[in-house]
Amino acid sequence: MLSPKQEESLSKFMSKILRHTPEQFGIKLDHEGYCHVHDLISAIKSENRWSDIGEAGIDQVVTNCPKKRYHMVNGYIRANYGHSAGRLDYEESIPPTALYHGTNSKVVDKIITEGIKPMGRKYVHLSETLEFATLAGKRRGELVILEIDTVKSMANNVKFYIANNGVWLADFVPPQYFRKI
Fold this sequence. Notes:
Blueprint: H1 4-20, E1 35-36, H2 37-45, H3 55-64, E2 70-73, E3 76-79, E4 98-104, H4 108-114, E5 124-127, H5 130-137, E6 143-149, H6 150-155, E7 160-164, E8 167-170, E9 178-180
Antiparallel strand pairs: 1-3, 2-3, 4-6, 5-8, 6-9, 7-8
Helix pairs in contact: 1-3
């Protein structure tokens, strides 16, 4: 059983491997971003501090991750969103009438002028709930929440993709389709 600190550290390492540098660890992701769990375990064990990690540790991280970053099915695992390496295929879907984006006060004026961009990621990350947008946006500086009008956005060809429970993705959200709340 991992301690909460170990769990957080392992989750960050898993994110690095699955979202950003799979090739650096000899991981080949399929078009949906999955790899075999045993391949991930082998990659993780390449770091001395994780030499005794096993499937139980991976299960613990997947189960307890508050942001629901990972999905495991039939012996395969993927990061649900946040990739900077490669672009995964997500299913285009119809979201709730409002989605939320958490950001910080230092960049909000630029976002309001230019729109919500993916920046270093492949997609813009949006949340179904204020709670999750707060969790996602509170990492940096003073939190600001933006509310996206998905009905108007979709009427003007903005596409939304479902990533996992409560997390939605978009290529870009123009400024006329959101407001600061």
